[in-house]
Each structure stands twice: as C-alpha cells, then as structure tokens.
Write a sequence for this structure.
C-alpha cells in the first residue's frame, strides 16, 4: 500500500453556527468557500467546504454547523489541532490580523515557527511558517505574500500513540522525529498537507465531541482504485473500513483508528467542479440528490449565508 496515501484530503469539524464559522474561514483566514451543501445524514445542517481556488485535496476545511451546539471538550481520541501552512516570515502579519479576534501565541515545534489560536467554537488552529510551499493560495481576501497554502497537517491527542504510529506507517507515513510529547509522522508521497503529529499523554481525559471538535480527518488518494487498495490493506490487518460511499465530490471509506479518531480515505475525483463552474464555486446551495425534494423546506430552515443563491 506504500505510496497510495498522499497526505490529507480534508478535515471536518463541528460548529455551533454557520455564519460565524463561514466568516472565520473566509474572512479571517481568507479561504474560499468552494461548496455550500448539506449533511448527508442531517440535511437541515449545512456542510460547508473552505479551501483554495478549486478545493484541491490537502486544502479543504469543512464544517457541520449544528446551530446552538454546546462546546466540546478537548482530550484524547481526537484531532485537537489543525495546522495551515503560510509563508515563512508572514507570522507577524498574521498575528496582527488575528489578534483582535482572540488570544494568539507564538511557539516552535520541530524547528518551525507557528502561531496557535482558536477558531470561533474553540477549535485548535495553528498557522505554520513553511519554506518553499509551492501551492497557490486563494487571494480573494488575503494577499499571496501571506495567503494560506493549504494544510500543513493535524495533531492527534492520544493516550497511547504506538498503535497509531503503526497504522500511519501502513498508510505510507514515516516517523520523522520526536520532541517532548510529540511524534511527527510525514507522508512519503505527500501533497503538502503531509504532517500528522501525535501528542501522547496517558493522563489526558477522553474528548467529548461537539462544537469545536474535529469530527474526522480524511486522507487523500488519487482515485477509487487506489482507495480499494488501501481498503484491502486495512482489512487484512484487522480494521473494518466501510464500503466506498459516494459523497458527490469524492468517494469515501471510513474506519476508527486505534486511538479513537475517525479516519476517512477520500478520492481526489470527481472534485468540486462536478456541479458548479470554477468561477462560481460555493455560490449556490447544492443538495445531494436524495435531498433535492427538501429544497423549499431547507431554504426556510438554514441560516442565510452571504453570496449563496438558494
């Protein structure tokens, strides 16, 4: 299976409201909303996607905004922080931009400067100064000189990191180093969103998932053939991944990792231009076909978002 996982595809979190969530990721971080749709299992809840110009794999933060959801509790068994790559040297500008929204702190991990903060629901966010990231940022709000290139990675909080190290190794990651409580794993065949940091602490309480929690992290594969290979390899060592599920913009399999984090493996095909032109991404409410008959009701229930045609 080596080489079939190309780093992260997307990260999906739970929010307490669509308006504040949308504003933070589009206005504060300067990402593009590339798709406005609804949760397959709860169609009265948005599923919002934020990323680069086309929502390329490794750039997309997605959210389920359950209106009024209580704040979750961070702890073991979750992805406690999502890190975004920004140009090295831009952190001072980011600090100035984001400080009015709440506390930010400078820190260093594995020799990289980073700015740690929280999103509107308390979700852990970091901006990491990365040298030489050639990915092109979306520049609708933030200029290229400091624009977000996509994810750098995620940090999982675990009581015992060992089994997750073994799983990530199977999926095409190598251990790159250890620093204090952190183990850094990096995809061998990475797409820029290459890093999974594991924080091991046996005293951590278990996470309680709600607003501000990451629901799942998705890893990227090129196509369904590669996904099938990953699924086979996971099944051979005792995991129980789901069948491949059509999520309109990618195909997905899901399984629970040893530390409790929900993992997904998603294809890069067919992508977000499947039902919208590139220049119009995110501007219309798109519904899965099984929920198309609910459009009128959903228009009354969903919070209005700027620039969305219903």
């Amino acid at each position: 299976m080596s080489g079939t996982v190309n780093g992260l595809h997307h990260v999906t979190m739970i929010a307490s409201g669509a308006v504040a969530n949308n504003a933070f990721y589009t206005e504060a971080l300067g990402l593009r909303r590339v798709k406005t749709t609804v949760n397959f299992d709860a169609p009265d809840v948005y599923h919002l996607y934020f990323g680069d110009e086309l929502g390329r794999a490794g750039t997309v933060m997605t959210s389920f905004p359950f209106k009024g959801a209580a704040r979750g509790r961070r702890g073991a068994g979750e992805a406690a922080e999502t890190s975004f790559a920004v140009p090295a040297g831009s952190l001072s500008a980011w600090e100035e931009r984001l400080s009015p929204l709440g506390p930010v702190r400078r820190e260093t991990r594995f020799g990289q400067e980073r700015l740690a903060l929280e999103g509107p629901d308390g979700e852990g966010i970091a901006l990491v100064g990365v040298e030489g990231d050639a990915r092109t940022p979306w520049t609708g709000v933030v200029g290229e000189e400091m624009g977000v290139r996509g994810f750098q990675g995620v940090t999982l909080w675990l009581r015992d990191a060992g089994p997750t190290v073994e799983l990530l190794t199977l999926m095409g990651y190598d251990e790159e180093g250890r620093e204090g409580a952190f183990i850094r794993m990096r995809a061998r065949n990475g797409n820029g969103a290459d890093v999974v940091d594991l924080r091991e602490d046996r005293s951590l309480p278990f996470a309680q998932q709600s607003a501000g929690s990451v629901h799942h992290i998705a890893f990227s594969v090129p196509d369904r053939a590669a996904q099938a290979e990953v699924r086979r390899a996971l099944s051979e060592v005792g995991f129980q991944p789901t069948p491949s599920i059509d999520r309109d913009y990618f195909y997905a399999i899901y399984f629970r990792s040893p530390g409790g984090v929900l993992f997904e493996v998603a294809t890069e095909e067919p992508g977000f231009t499947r039902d919208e032109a590139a220049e119009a991404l995110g501007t219309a409410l798109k519904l899965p076909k099984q929920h198309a008959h609910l459009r009128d009701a959903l228009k009354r229930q969903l919070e209005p978002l700027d620039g969305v045609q219903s």
